[in-house]
Write a sequence for this structure.
């Protein structure tokens, strides 16, 4: 399990608590990119067994790449510093699914929550069963719920940091469509993600993300349908209308 952070003092304690609560004892690597707000002190005080690394990086996805290179476990997942696992059985359910299906990767559902009140669900990202053809219809799994075997990253690479906010989209497109990495769907909410995101902050940011999404197809030698990249942001509308059966568990 990997978390990267820079100046996350307001949320890192919740993130760490959700990992500590897991019934599965997983390696947790935290990469701090040079926090100046006391984040490192919080990590050391609350989670002394965390594998903490403090160092320079060239941004979020470069930090993820650096942290992933340190991982020794069989499965790699990423939990953002302001996100939380829904309950204590998330990691155990992931490992159980991968073992039962022999899939090379898996993913689940995600809820966006109010940034100030992570118990309040704002929208629900229901992923649904895996079919690589769904990418052409604007679909993708939510990256914070995506887990892949470490040897998958060894074969197919980590994040392409030139893709900006579309790095996670490109990585899953590369793995699941181009290289046909097998994936299993876990039909439950795995992560509570606080609202807010660089790719949706402004109209210009959304347009830039759309250009990077298109580039993600190009660099993989793939061609989207004429409507693929239009449907991708439009899928968010349905997420506001859906309401999952989620019991918010306090960290």
């Amino acid at each position: 399990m990997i978390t990267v952070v820079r100046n996350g003092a307001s949320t890192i304690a919740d993130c760490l608590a959700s990992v500590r609560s897991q019934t599965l004892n997983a390696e947790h690597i935290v990469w701090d990119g040079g926090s100046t707000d006391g984040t490192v002190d919080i990590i050391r005080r609350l989670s002394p067994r965390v594998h903490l690394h403090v160092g320079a990086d060239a941004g979020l996805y470069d930090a993820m790449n650096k942290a992933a290179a340190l991982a020794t476990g069989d499965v790699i997942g990423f939990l953002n510093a302001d996100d939380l696992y829904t309950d204590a059985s998330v990691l155990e359910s992931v490992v159980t699914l991968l073992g039962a299906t022999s899939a090379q990767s898996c993913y689940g559902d995600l809820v966006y929550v109010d940034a100030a009140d992570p118990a309040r669900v704002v929208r629900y990202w229901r992923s649904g069963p895996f079919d690589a053809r769904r990418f052409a219809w604007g679909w993708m799994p939510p990256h914070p719920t995506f887990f892949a075997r470490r040897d998958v990253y060894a074969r197919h690479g980590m994040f392409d940091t030139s893709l900006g906010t579309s790095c996670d989209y490109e990585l899953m497109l590369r793995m699941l469509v181009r290289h046909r990495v097998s994936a299993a769907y876990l039909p439950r909410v795995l992560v509570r993600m606080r609202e807010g995101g660089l790719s949706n902050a402004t109209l210009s940011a959304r347009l830039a993300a759309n250009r990077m999404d298109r580039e993600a197809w190009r660099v993989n030698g793939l061609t989207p349908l004429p409507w693929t990249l239009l449907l991708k942001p439009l899928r968010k509308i349905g997420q506001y209308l859906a309401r999952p059966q989620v019991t918010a568990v306090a960290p």
In short: The longest strand covers residues 183-194. The radius of gyration is 17 Å.
